[in-house]
Amino acid sequence: MNILIFNWRDPKNPKSGGAELVTMEHARRWAKKGNTTTWFTSSFVGGLQEEVIEGVKFIRRGNEYTVFIHAFMWYVASIQKFDIVIDEIHGLPFFTPLYVRVPKVAFIHELALEIWDHMYPFPVNIIGRFTEQMYFYLYKKIPFWTDAKSVLEELVHMGVPRGQCIAIPCPINNKPVESLPVKEKELTFLFAGRIVKMKGVEDIIQALKLIRIREPYSKLWILGAGERVYLDKIQHLVKSENLENAVKFFGKVSEGEKLTLMGRSHLLLHGSIREGWGLVVLEAASQGTPTVAYNVSGLRDTVKDGETGVLTKKNTPEDMSLEVLNLLDDKKRYSGFQEKGLAWVRSMTWEKEAQKSLRMLQEIYDQKN
Questions:
Q1: What is the DSSP string of 9-61?
Q2: 3-state class (DSSP) for residue 217
Q3: Nearest Cα to 284, choosing from 266, 299, 296, 272?
Q4: Using CA atoms, how far apart are residues 73 and 169, in angstroms rounded to an integer?
Q5: Taking the chain, what is the end-to-end CA distance rounded to the nearest angstrom?
Q6: In 74, 162, 262, 297, which residue has its Cα 20 to 30 A from 63's Cα atom?
């Protein structure tokens, strides 16, 4: 097939995240199977307008706001004919039902919903919420692809017929450890991801403060980059709570260093308001590190509550700190989470999941032709 992907970012974009990495894992395997695969996306400083990476052709135009208009203009002017178009949704779709006449798939990692209020000022948040509710009507006849079953349930709640939805899980890229690594001498927690408000870094810092009442030498490692303004806010919070000696900011690190730090940590803490999947949870599990996370969409799928980690009963720093201390008090339970987490990540492979996604695209194409 000749496959086209519309996505506002690509893996080389400095602002790219797990969604782009997941899409690339599928796309490069489609290309390897002989499918022509094109990815239309936004430009960024230092990025080429066009290039081929692992068999996938990237075309970059506009920025992350104007890319939607550029996608429309490029598509209607293109002499290239595509068999199927993947409309990847991050808050806003590419509105392909209005101008694409070949089979389409809506690929959505997470619904924005309350993210609009956490990440955007008024009136952008109101416009975003309204648009998100309305575009589901436009897409009511289009198949939806997501990563997590909990997100699939949200799609059904938004009015998408269950028969039009498919959830395909996302394995890890790294190799799980053969034996459990040695942990830090001092109790050490880890946050890994983009440092933005919706990821709950502020709550994790507050949870650490509560944990240190009983475990005064515990510490937190924060991995990841973010906008300078928000980073300054987080660092000010750390200072105001007298946690400067307990919290270390690593910035953006290499994959190898991230995995090493995960292995040395005792727990991954995840306080996001919602996730599409939560790949970092599986990466931590692959290094023998369980997770304590908020009970939200996406994380309900990657944290097997009571088996590989813990989902909080209430999504508050108080409840997170309580669950952390309860888990660490039960060494048998903790080691069981380590072993079951490793077994789960070993059971999933990208080859198997990419076969599912390609089969899905082929079936959608065949039904329309």
A1: --TTSTT--HHHHHHHHHHHHHHHTT-EEEEEE---TT--SEEEETTEEEEE-
A2: coil
A3: 266
A4: 33
A5: 12
A6: 297
How confident is the model over 250-267, as pLDDT tens digits? 999 999 999 999 999 999
Cis peptide before 123 (omega within 30 of 0): yes
Answer for the pair 266, 99: CB distance below 8 angstroms, yes or no.
no
Task: Please enumerate, as own/partner, the contacts of 327-330 that have beta carbons within 8 Å and a separation of 24 or more.
Answer: 327/267, 327/290, 327/292, 328/187, 328/266, 328/267
- Taking alpha carbons only, the member of 188, 275, 262, 187 closest to residue 224 is 262
Does an H or E element contain 350, and which?
A: helix 350-368
Domains located in the chain, CATH noted: 2-171+349-368 (3.40.50.2000), 188-347 (3.40.50.2000)
Bridge partners, residue 66, by sequence: none
- Name the amino acid, one letter, at 182: V
For residue range 46-72, list pLDDT tens digits in order.
999 999 999 999 999 999 999 999 999
Provide the pLDDT for residue 4: 98
Query: What CA–CA distance (Å, rounded) separates 82 from 102?
Result: 7
Whether pLDDT at 113 is above 70: no
> What sign results for the dihedral spanned by CA atoms 310, 313, 317, 321?
negative
Phi then psi for residue 92, to 5 deg, are -125, 140
pLDDT in tens, 10-46: 999 988 888 899 999 999 999 999 999 999 999 999 9
Sheet holding 36-41, edge to edge: 50-53, 56-60, 36-41, 2-6, 84-89, 104-108, 144-146, 165-167
Give the pair of three-digit tokens for residue 31: 């290309």
How far does CA 331 lie from the centroid of its chain? 30
Q: Are strands 267-270 and 309-311 parallel, antiparallel or unpaired?
A: unpaired
SS3 of residue 145 by DSSP:
strand
pTM of the model: 0.87
Query: How far is 72 from 28, CA to CA, in rounded Å?
Result: 24
Instruction: List b or e across 114-135, with b for residues whose CB sees 16 or more CB atoms inside 10 angstroms.
Output: ebbbbbbeeeebeebbeebeeb
